[in-house]
TrEMBL record:
<dbReference type="GO" id="GO:0046496">
    <property type="term" value="P:nicotinamide nucleotide metabolic process"/>
</dbReference>
<keyword id="KW-0418">Kinase</keyword>
<keyword id="KW-0456">Lyase</keyword>
<dbReference type="GO" id="GO:0052855">
    <property type="term" value="F:ADP-dependent NAD(P)H-hydrate dehydratase activity"/>
</dbReference>
<dbReference type="Pfam" id="PF03853">
    <property type="entry name" value="YjeF_N"/>
</dbReference>
<dbReference type="InterPro" id="IPR036652">
    <property type="entry name" value="YjeF_N_dom_sf"/>
</dbReference>
<comment type="similarity">
    <text>In the C-terminal section; belongs to the NnrD/CARKD family.</text>
</comment>
<keyword id="KW-0520">NAD</keyword>
<dbReference type="GO" id="GO:0110051">
    <property type="term" value="P:metabolite repair"/>
</dbReference>
<comment type="subunit">
    <text>Homotetramer.</text>
</comment>
<keyword id="KW-0413">Isomerase</keyword>
<keyword id="KW-0511">Multifunctional enzyme</keyword>
<feature type="binding site">
    <location>
        <position position="419"/>
    </location>
    <ligand>
        <name>(6S)-NADPHX</name>
    </ligand>
</feature>
<dbReference type="Pfam" id="PF01256">
    <property type="entry name" value="Carb_kinase"/>
</dbReference>
<dbReference type="GO" id="GO:0005524">
    <property type="term" value="F:ATP binding"/>
</dbReference>
<feature type="binding site">
    <location>
        <position position="418"/>
    </location>
    <ligand>
        <name>AMP</name>
    </ligand>
</feature>
<feature type="binding site">
    <location>
        <begin position="387"/>
        <end position="391"/>
    </location>
    <ligand>
        <name>AMP</name>
    </ligand>
</feature>
Length: 483
């Protein structure tokens, strides 16, 4: 900001916002736009974007929720033919309570809002095409103030575009603490923020669109892999490889009660990413029949344990641990854990399993996935992959950014899909990826395979496993990393 003329970043942000709104609405001319404007620069962005929309023929009305709205933005909107409405006497906002002079103090500020404009919103709210939420951005506290809540109530049902962040969510943690805006589209400036990636706040963002405003950014605390990142991580066989040097993944999973878990975990592991797959357990006959490439016990570069293991979970974990190689620990084998394992490991709990493991409430874990994934990673000295709509992957190294997975579809919430994921991550681990990379690339591929297999319809865990090779084939070409 110091290196740019004053207001340059805000102009870039506002222009990016306005064009995102035009895209969203399919044009500006003739559209009716309401801006909800708070006291900070977030409201300034909304006002300048509103001015641009007004110049393109939109009818724009700004509802000023504070008597300290961005003065330059108000002037720009007016100059472009837009309208401003103060809220202290507006029809959609209750009179100020709890203070005898609050209303008077606001009315005394006549510079921003002219007397005729203070009376009420001009627009019939059922004719509004879009609400632009400039109530509060990265400078705000969680929750909404009564003025904002009342304004949103009056506009219920109108599509919302959030400026930078949906107002009211906790920007830096993705948590929810009080009322917040739920947007159809969020236009973020400069970078994604934790609330755009992490649930529950991410669910309030709708589609997130990033506008580059030319910021030089520090190292992130949270990352989200994209296709090109996953492509760069994929194991690529060198010309002189053989099956052992590509890595052998072993699975001690499934049980007489849950033979299907073994078959699904093996199908996740047996996609060709590792050189060989071993299976040890009660479902051997089935595995041999359905996966003739898979062999029995022996040395492996990574073991997967726990999926559907039932009573065998403890011994599977003990065997795998004794091998000294990196492990993927799922489902039933999570239960016996009490602390660090002494070998590199990836734990793959869903919120309920993590709740049982660390004796916390499941609801708390779903409300604070970032916090609990980090806590568990530290406690077990392992990578923790906390499954959810936005699977959250924390490393025991506090300096390694947490990774949040954004691929997938709600159809993926289906029995056995976690077994496929465990096997897939195991194969990447065996192929030599670091645990954080194996876990996050595995989650990305798994979600992308679900989307591919689903094609908008229902999908089964077997279908997800079958789609993994096609997803890998469709990854962008990247030059191999220099060694
Ligand atoms: N940084 C950059 O590079 C760029 C940033 N840009 C933009 O600036 C935004 C950040 O602007 P900001 O810092 O002015 O803070 P912002 O979020 O608008 O408001 C904070 C004020 O609101 C108030 N308030 C607090 N909590 C509240 C609540 N729950 N509900 C209601 N009001 C609440 C409180 O003031 P109070 O009313 O309490 O006096 C506080 O001071 C950012 O998100 C982006 O849009 C772009 O222009 C491009 C470049
Ligand atoms: K906002």
């Amino acid at each position: 900001m110091a290196s740019l003329p004053e207001g340059a970043l805000m102009q870039r942000a506002a222009a990016g916002l306005a064009y995102a709104v035009i895209d969203h609405l399919g044009g500006a001319y003739g559209k009716r736009v309401v801006l909800l404007v708070g006291s900070g620069d977030n409201g300034g962005d909304a006002l300048y974007a509103g001015a641009l929309l007004a110049r393109r023929g939109a009818w724009v009305e700004a509802w000023l929720l504070s008597d300290r709205a961005h003065a330059g933005g108000v002037a720009a909107l007016r100059a472009a033919g837009g309208h401003c409405v103060g809220l202290d006497t507006g029809s959609f906002v209750p009179h100020e309570t709890g203070s005898t002079d609050g209303g008077a103090a606001r009315r005394a500020d006549a510079t921003l809002v002219e007397p005729g404009e203070r009376q009420r919103a001009r627009v019939e709210t059922n004719t509004v095409d879009v609400v632009i939420d400039g109530i509060v951005g990265i400078g705000g506290k969680p929750g909404l103030r009564p003025e904002a809540e009342a304004a949103l109530e009056g506009l219920a049902g109108v599509p919302v575009v959030a400026v930078d962040t949906p107002s009211g969510v906790c920007v830096d943690t993705g948590e929810i603490d009080g009322a917040h805006v739920s947007a159809d589209l969020t236009v973020s400036f400069g970078t994604y923020k934790p609330c755009h990636l992490l649930d529950p706040a991410a669910s309030a963002c709708g589609t997130v669109r990033l506008v580059d405003i030319g910021l030089e950014l520090p190292a992130p605390i949270i990352e989200s892999l994209e296709a090109v990142d996953v492509a760069a991580l994929m194991p690529r066989p060198a010309p002189d490889v053989h099956k052992y040097s590509r890595g052998v993944v072993g699975l001690r999973v499934g049980s007489a009660t849950y033979p299907g878990a073994a078959l699904l975990a093996v199908s996740g592991a047996n996609t060709g990413l590792a050189g060989m797959v071993r299976y040890v357990g009660t479902a051997s006959e089935w595995v041999k029949r359905l996966h003739p490439e898979v062999v029995g016990d022996g040395q492996a570069q990574a073991w997967v344990v726990g999926s559907g293991s039932a009573d065998g979970a403890n011994s599977a974990l003990a065997f795998a641990r004794a091998s000294g190689v990196p492990l993927v620990i799922d489902a039933d084998s999570l239960r016996p854990l009490t602390g660090p394992l002494g070998v590199p490991a990836i734990l793959t709990p869903h919120a309920g399993e993590l709740a049982a493991l660390i004796r916390e409430d499941r609801g708390d874990i779903e409300a604070r996935p970032l916090h609990y994934a980090r806590l568990a990673a530290k406690r077990f000295d392992a990578v923790v992959l906390l499954k959810g709509r936005r699977t959250t992957i924390a490393s025991p190294d506090p300096d390694t950014p947490v990774r949040v997975n954004t691929t997938g579809t709600s159809w993926l919430a289906t029995a056995g899909s976690g077994d496929v994921l465990g096997g897939l991550i195991g194969s990447l681990l065996a192929a030599g990826l670091a645990p954080i990379d194996a876990a996050s690339a595995g989650a990305w591929l798994h979600g992308a395979a679900a989307t591919l297999a689903s094609a908008g319809g229902p999908v089964t865990a077997s279908g997800v496993a079958a789609a993994i090779p096609a997803v890998i084939r469709s990854l962008p070409a990247v030059s191999p990393p220099s060694r």
